């Protein structure tokens, strides 16, 4: 039975405590990005460039942080991002994060690469749950995942398109991290792995190797037809892609650089957000993740055009430190930090958050 350790006053305290409670290799794997972690640092730096501008004398007594997102009525705009292999952090893995999401009314996005099956996660979670899809090499397997997600009551599909190739984190390599043999993707049990490709002389390990199953626009159009559930796209950083995805019929987009894990030197998600909001217009659903470590960070993303934000590493740090209780506590702290920022900035509702609520920090 986990309990909340002393010294957790803010959501970000779980990051500090996770360093102490996690095995060094596992911590490096979770905390790291790819390469030199420059995109990880960029995500944090982008939030630090902005300050929240306080306003005086506004009546906040009817204030709230409620939001309707993809047909779900949520008490706050903080979602749990899809994070693979949660058993690396805690024996209860995604069952614990699902319980925490249910306890706090948070929408959970379950990863294709979860340690528990999507059915087990659904049974532990509240009604607000989406399923993150990695398109499978065989379309039959993708169709199977879609049918399972629908049967298990997931309300939407989040297809991640930015991770067909991910170079390793130097920090995780230096710490000697390798995925333990028992760390398997429970959802994909029974799907035979695709046949390895014999590379010819002169063929590239990247283009003809890792990228041979990378999704294309044809695959996305196929998915939009085939999915019984609304499809969101995760991993958008370019306004032109955003426009094209909106026109293709996606339910909404997630501005994300995969927490800096796909391309070192990718721009920060937050930096790209205003241009993407401008590209898709004021009313199109747009979420953001990457670098959110506080309610103030969430507020800044909302002010710059996101409808809601997702939290990746913080949920894993809280899970490692204190299991389901820790994740629920971390979410509660984030919500309070967000509501305090709204109240200080004179925003009674999320609709009041605009770029005018921010000013450069120095
Ligand atoms: C991820 N992320 C991720 N994204 C996804 O679409 N499917 C997945 O299975 C995973 N797995 C995963 C594992 C680990 C260890 C991490 C840290 C991240 C990316 C995740 O959804 C999100 O985009 C980032 O984590 C957001 O950045 P922060 O909040 O971690 O800074």
Low-confidence stretches: none
- Mean pLDDT across the residues is 96
CATH superfamily membership? Aldolase class I
Bound molecules: ligand FNR
> For this structure, what is the CATH class?
Alpha Beta
Helix content: 25-40%
What does the model show?
InterPro entries: Aldolase_TIM, Alpha-hydoxy_acid_DH_FMN, FMN-dep_DH, FMN_HAD. Its cofactor is FMN. Its EC number is 1.-.-.-. With 362 residues, the protein is an alpha/beta fold. The chain has 13 helices and twelve strands. The termini are far apart. The protein has a single domain, classed as TIM Barrel (Alpha-Beta Barrel), CATH 3.20.20. It is globular and about 70 Å long. Helix 4 packs parallel to helix 13. It has an eight-stranded parallel β-sheet with strand order 4-11-10-9-8-7-6-5. The site of ligand FNR has 22 residues, from loops.
List the helices and strands and how they pair.
Blueprint: H1 13-21, H2 24-31, H3 38-48, E1 50-52, E2 67-69, E3 72-74, E4 78-80, H4 93-104, E5 108-110, H5 118-124, E6 129-133, H6 139-151, E7 157-160, H7 170-174, H8 205-209, H9 217-226, E8 231-236, H10 239-248, E9 252-255, H11 269-280, E10 286-289, H12 295-303, E11 308-311, H13 313-345, E12 358-360
Parallel strand pairs: 4-11, 5-6, 6-7, 7-8, 8-9, 9-10, 10-11
Antiparallel strand pairs: 1-12, 2-3
Helix pairs in contact: 1-13, 4-5, 4-13, 10-11, 12-13
The site of ligand FNR has 22 residues, from loops.
């Amino acid at each position: 039975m986990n309990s909340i350790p002393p010294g957790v006053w803010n959501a970000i305290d779980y990051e500090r405590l996770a360093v102490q409670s996690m095995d060094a290799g596992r911590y490096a794997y979770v905390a790291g990005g790819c390469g030199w972690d420059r995109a990880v640092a960029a995500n944090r730096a982008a939030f630090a460039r902005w300050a929240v501008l306080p306003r005086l004398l506004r009546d906040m007594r009817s204030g709230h942080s409620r939001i309707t997102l993809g047909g779900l009525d949520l008490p706050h705009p903080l979602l749990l991002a899809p994070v693979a292999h949660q058993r690396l952090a805690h024996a209860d893995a995604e069952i614990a994060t699902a319980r925490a999401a249910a306890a706090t009314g948070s929408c959970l996005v379950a990863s294709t690469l979860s340690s528990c099956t999507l059915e087990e996660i659904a049974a532990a979670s509240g009604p607000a749950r989406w399923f993150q899809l990695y398109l499978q090499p065989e379309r039959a397997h993708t169709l199977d995942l879609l049918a399972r997600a629908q049967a298990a009551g997931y309300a939407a599909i989040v297809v991640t398109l930015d991770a067909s190739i991910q170079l390793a984190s130097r920090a995780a390599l230096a710490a000697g991290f390798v995925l333990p043999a028992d760390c398997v993707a429970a959802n994909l049990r029974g799907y035979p792995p695709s046949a390895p490709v014999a590379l010819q002389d002169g063929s590239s390990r990247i283009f003809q190797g890792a990228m041979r199953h990378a999704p294309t626009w044809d695959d996305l159009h196929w998915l939009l037809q085939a999915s019984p559930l609304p499809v969101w796209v995760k991993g958008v950083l370019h306004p032109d892609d955003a426009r094209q995805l909106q026109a293709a019929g996606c339910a909404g987009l997630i501005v994300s650089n995969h927490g800096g894990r796909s391309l070192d030197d990718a721009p920060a998600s937050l930096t790209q957000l205003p241009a993407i909001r401008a590209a898709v217009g004021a009313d199109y659903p747009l979420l953001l993740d990457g670098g959110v470590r506080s309610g103030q960070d969430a507020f800044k993303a909302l002010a710059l055009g996101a409808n809601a934000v997702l939290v990746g590493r913080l949920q894993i740090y809280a899970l490692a430190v204190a299991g389901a209780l820790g994740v629920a506590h971390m979410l509660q702290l984030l919500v309070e930090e967000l509501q305090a920022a709204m109240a200080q900035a004179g925003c009674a509702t999320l609709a009041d958050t605009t770029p005018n609520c921010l000013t450069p920090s120095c």
